[in-house]
Design brief:
- The chain starts with 6 loop residues before the first helix and ends in an 11-residue tail after the last helix.
- The chain is globular, with a radius of gyration of 13 Å.
- The chain has 92 residues and is an all-alpha fold.
Length: 92
């Protein structure tokens, strides 16, 4: 699936070469979801919610670790999507 990342989303992925992202890979999709929810502007979040299903977004949150999130972002998105990360830390 060919998807062009808008500049507002690329800004959330500053440490990655976004030209190398492959939307067919679940790891890349989860990384985009996580970074946009953690660091994105309202424009980036709007793009994310129009591009990914609610199910895929909630699964990305559940499969993550709570230590991967800023406290404020985790509190907000846990409330909005009514889910929490399944792991408390990276190794637990």
């Amino acid at each position: 699936m060919e998807t062009i990342l808008p500049q507002s989303v690329k800004a959330c992925l500053w440490s990655y070469n976004t030209d190398m992202f492959d939307f067919s890979l679940p790891n890349h999709r989860n990384l985009i979801i996580h970074n946009v929810l953690n660091y994105g502007t309202s424009e980036a979040v709007t793009w994310l919610r129009n591009t990914f299903s609610k199910t895929e977004i909630t699964q990305a949150i559940v499969q993550s670790s709570s230590s991967d999130w800023s406290k404020k972002s985790l509190a907000l998105w846990s409330l909005i999507f009514n889910v929490n990360p399944s792991k408390k830390g990276r190794f637990v």
